[in-house]
Every structure is written in structure tokens, then in C-alpha cells.
Structure to design on (463 residues):
């Protein structure tokens, strides 16, 4: 989620469409759709991913779908190994959650922070939700950087911070890492507040956005295409 | 563009804030929280989200395919300090609720089960009310609040209970006998359910106690708690 990825190219779906796809993936899980529907929906979910240039991600998910479908097809009773039920039950379970993972990975990988925030505003999410979301996206990379600095500082003082130290003294290691992180977080919260208020985050009234989002024909097409098999399945046509 | 502003509601509890920033913004979003408060909540939510990610990783390492079964317990074990410091910094109603809600939103967007959203709203809200009963200072109530808050993460593990149904449906669709699998899962389901829920309780108590100990040891001394 970088600002450099905020280009709204002709093939990028609207964040709201991505949310709808996420909802559909959840409905699939809820209604236990049959295998055919699962495969059709998987193909539909993977299409925008591939079109937007995430071919590696799409092909990985395609392989996962194929492998899990094959595993869930095995017949433990016929093979005389009832223990294999565990394997095929797991395969069915994971393939059931896979649509959620697919749409989630797609949404996270292709949505810029500003598009996400603007979409939240357009959906009239309260400011109490929007502002913390902005801050999380902004602050997340800082945590990783802080953690690296803390590890360096620990190394400088000769305090072990590797995996072995975590296993031997989990509570102490957690304390050594968390306390500086939290101390820094309180400072950052102050700094961010000053910066954000200076930039007018606390202002009343409507806020403008540099990133524009718009529902296009491909958004409506995608939603319609994904609705059809789902409704057909739930209605029991398939 | 729609204006999202609600009329200002003067709140006697926020008027006493010593933080100059709060006095400066004056903006209340119908929640009694100023923008500066929301930013504080965002920073701590980010840290909490990091904890949840770490917990997911650890839980997946230990339990393999049943990935997130111990996710809430491990998250409860390690995020006590984050929760306690947020309460100490904010001491205002809404912080815990918003943190749970926003984490639920991020979990949903990153592909977790949508019903987890309900858990991440109801439990943090209850936790917030409990903490408020002790004015965000009473240690026992804060600990109870943390335990309740920790159950807000049970959402991501709910699909495990759908898994059996899905497998039975898949067996029946292929014309197989599902009696065997029904029997096996009956034990696993109740057993794991009780185990997972007890684990959350124990881990949240430990994690909350650890958080409060860190508060006294480090943050109270430094004057930021």
C-alpha cells in the first residue's frame, strides 16, 4: 500500500467493488456452495488479479485451488484408510476459506492507502473509524523500522535478541522489545497529531482527496459476473 | 462528497484534559473523542495489529492447518502492555471499542471471515464499559476488561466450526456416508472449543497482568502512563 501504487489505471477495480467481492467470498463460505460454483468463483476472483498484473499471485492461488480440490476428492473409505479423512477434511476446510484469502490478498495488494481511505469516506464511515485507519496504514511501516533499531540497540549492548533468546526468555524478550516500541508509539502519537492537525485532519466539513475513485463498467460487470453463479447456487439451480 | 460532521457535543469528562492538543482541536465526532484521541487510538491499534499478525504467525507454526485456533490466546498473551498503555494514555470511553472495530475491519479486508466483525465489535464494547466502570484506573476492572476484549478475536477461528459442515456436505454431494466423520468431529469440536476458550482466559489474565506490571515498572516512572 504505497502512494506510488495509487494510479487508478483502466484495469483497477474500485475499492468498493473489492469489498463486495470480499462479501461474496464470505457468503460462499456461509452457504457451503458446491464444487462447481467454487471453481467458477475462483476463476472470477483470479481474473482481475491477473489483469492487474499480479500474475504470480494469481497462478499461486490457481495451483492451491487445484491441489486442494484434488485432495478433497480422495475417498478414504474406498482406500481403507479412514485416517485420511483428516487430510481431505482439512483440504475441504481450507478450500472453503480460500475465496476469502484470494479476495483479501487481491484487495490488500492492489488498493492504495488513499483510495482505501477515500472509499471509506464515500461510504460515510464515521471519522472515528477513518482516522485510526489512516494512522494504522501510516504507522505500520514505522513499527518494522523501530523493531530493527531496537534489535540493533540490543545487539550493541550485548543482549541476545535472536530466536534462541525468544525461546529461553520469552517474557523478558517481549519486555525488551515492547517497552521501547510503546515508548516510541506515545511520542509518535503526539507528533502525528501535531502534523495531522496542521494539515487540517481535524477540520470540520468535507475533505477532498487527490485519489479519485469511480465505479466503471468493469466494476459493474465484475459484480454481475460474480453474482450470477452465487445466486444460482444459493437458489439451488446448480 | 458528504459532510460527515456531527454537531459538537460538549463533554464534561474531556474538558479536564491536560493535553493542550485536545483543547486545540475541539472537534468531537459524536463519540467524545477528538482527532488527537483518534490518532492515539490509531497508533496503538497499529501496534495491536502487529501483535495479532505475530500471533497468527506463531499459531500457524504450532498448529499447522488449523492455523488460527490459538490465535486469540497468543494475541492475548502478548498484547497486554499495548492495551494497558492505551487505557492509561486515553482514559476515555471509546478507545477500546474503536480499536476492536478497526482491527475487525482490517481482518475482514485482509480476507478473514466477515462474522468476526461482530465479535470484534461486541466484546471490545463490553470491555470498554467494564473499564469505564473503574474510570480506566481500577486495576482489577482493567484486567477483566482485557480478558473480555481478548475474546473479540474469536471471530477468525469461527470458520473452523463451519469446516465440519462443509466436509459433511462435500461427502454427501459425492454420495458418501458421513456418519464416521460426524462422530470424529463431534469430539474434536467440543474439545477444541473448550480448550481454545480456556486458553484465551488464561492467556489474557497472564498477558494483562504482564501489561500492568510493565506499566508500573516502566511507564509510570517515565510519567507517560
Amino acid at each position: 500500500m504505497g502512494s506510488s501504487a495509487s494510479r487508478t489505471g483502466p484495469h483497477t477495480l474500485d475499492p468498493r467493488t473489492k469489498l463486495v467481492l470480499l462479501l461474496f467470498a464470505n457468503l460462499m463460505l456461509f452457504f457451503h456452495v458446491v464444487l462447481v460454483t467454487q471453481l467458477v468463483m475462483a476463476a472470477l476472483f483470479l481474473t482481475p488479479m491477473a489483469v492487474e498484473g499480479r500474475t504470480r499471485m494469481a497462478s499461486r492461488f490457481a495451483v492451491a485451488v487445484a491441489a486442494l480440490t484434488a485432495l478433497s476428492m480422495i475417498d478414504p473409505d474406498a482406500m481403507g484408510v479412514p485416517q485420511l479423512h483428516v487430510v481431505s477434511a482439512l483440504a475441504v476446510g481450507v478450500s472453503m476459506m480460500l475465496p476469502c484469502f484470494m479476495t483479501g490478498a487481491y484487495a490488500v495488494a492492489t488498493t492504495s492507502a488513499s483510495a482505501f481511505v477515500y472509499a471509506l469516506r464515500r461510504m460515510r464511515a464515521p471519522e472515528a473509524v477513518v482516522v485510526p485507519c489512516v494512522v494504522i496504514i501510516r504507522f505500520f511501516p514505522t513499527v518494522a523500522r523501530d523493531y530493527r533499531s531496537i534489535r540493533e540497540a540490543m545487539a550493541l549492548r550485548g543482549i541476545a535478541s535472536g530466536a534462541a533468546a525468544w525461546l529461553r526468555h520469552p517474557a523478558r524478550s517481549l519486555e525488551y522489545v515492547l517497552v521501547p516500541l510503546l515508548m516510541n508509539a506515545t511520542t509518535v502519537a503526539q507528533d502525528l497529531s501535531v502534523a495531522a492537525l496542521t494539515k487540517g485532519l481535524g477540520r470540520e466539513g468535507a475533505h477532498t482527496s487527490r485519489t479519485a475513485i469511480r465505479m466503471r463498467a468493469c466494476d459493474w460487470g465484475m459484480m454481475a459476473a460474480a453474482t450470477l453463479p452465487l445466486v444460482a447456487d444459493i437458489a439451488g439451480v446448480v | 462528497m458528504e459532510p460527515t460532521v456531527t454537531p459538537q457535543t460538549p463533554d464534561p469528562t474531556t474538558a479536564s484534559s491536560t493535553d493542550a492538543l485536545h483543547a486545540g482541536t475541539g472537534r468531537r465526532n459524536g463519540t467524545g473523542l477528538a482527532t488527537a484521541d483518534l490518532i492515539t487510538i490509531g497508533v496503538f491499534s497499529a501496534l495491536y495489529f502487529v501483535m495479532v499478525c505475530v500471533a497468527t504467525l506463531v499459531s500457524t507454526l504450532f498448529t499447522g492447518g488449523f492455523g488460527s485456533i490459538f490465535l486469540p490466546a497468543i494475541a492475548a498473551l502478548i498484547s497486554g502492555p499495548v492495551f494497558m498503555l492505551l487505557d492509561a494514555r486515553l482514559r476515555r470511553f471509546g478507545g477500546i471499542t474503536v480499536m476492536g472495530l478497526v482491527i475487525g475491519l482490517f481482518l475482514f479486508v485482509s480476507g478473514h471471515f466477515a462474522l468476526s466483525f461482530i465479535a470484534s465489535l461486541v466484546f471490545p464494547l463490553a470491555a470498554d464499559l467494564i473499564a469505564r466502570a473503574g474510570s480506566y484506573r481500577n486495576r482489577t476492572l482493567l484486567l477483566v476488561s482485557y480478558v473480555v476484549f481478548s475474546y473479540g478475536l474469536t471471530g477468525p477461528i469461527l470458520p473452523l466450526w463451519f469446516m465440519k459442515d462443509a466436509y459433511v456436505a462435500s461427502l454427501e454431494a459425492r454420495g458418501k456416508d458421513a456418519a464416521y466423520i460426524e462422530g470424529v468431529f463431534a469430539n474434536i469440536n467440543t474439545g477444541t472449543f473448550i480448550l481454545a476458550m480456556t486458553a484465551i482466559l488464561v492467556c489474557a489474565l497472564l498477558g494483562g497482568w504482564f501489561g500492568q506490571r510493565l506499566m508500573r515498572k516502566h511507564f509510570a516512572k517515565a510519567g507517560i502512563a
